[in-house]
Amino acid sequence: MPTKVKEFKSKIRGADVILIATPEYNLSVPEALNNAIDWASRPYGDDSNGKPVAIVRSSIGMLGDARAQYHLR
Ligand SMILES: Cc1cc2nc3c(=O)[nH]c(=O)nc-3n(C[C@H](O)[C@H](O)[C@H](O)COP(=O)(O)O)c2cc1C
User: Fold this and answer.
1) Which residue's CA is the closest to the ligand 1 atom numbered 14?
2) Any atom of ligand 1 within 6 Å of the Cβ of 64
3) The model's pTM
4) Closest CA to 9 of 47, 35, 45
5) How far is C-alpha 54 from the chain's CA centre?
6) Whose CA is nearest to atom 29 of ligand 1?
7) CA 65 to ligand 1: nearest atom
8) What CATH number labels 3-72?
9) Per DSSP, what are the bridge partners of residue 21?
10) Ligand 1, atom nearest to 64 Cα
11) Would you list the domain boundaries of the chain?
12) pLDDT tens across 45-59, in order?
């Protein structure tokens, strides 16, 4: 596992809650965020599950990030 991913997972482990602020890219979440979630979800047995998560938008579009937030949930 890359060092950056280990650091990322360590930060998640040490947090009380995760706040995700995301824009909407092509009707979903940006790939960088998707990749981060994918990395955090592995390996089996240490998958960063169980943390409370809050999500907020950072898009200025008319639908206000609704589709990205739907996918994120
Ligand atoms: C590749 C790309 C795709 C985007 N797709 C959407 C979209 O589907 N819906 C939307 O409301 N905004 C979309 N946007 C606008 C972003 O959500 C955001 O509001 C805008 O990029 C400003 O943020 P930024 O300066 O961090 O890129 C897109 C922007 C980019 C660069």
Assistant:
1) 25
2) no
3) 0.88
4) 47
5) 10
6) 25
7) 11
8) 3.40.50.360
9) 56
10) 11
11) 3-72
12) 989 888 999 999 988
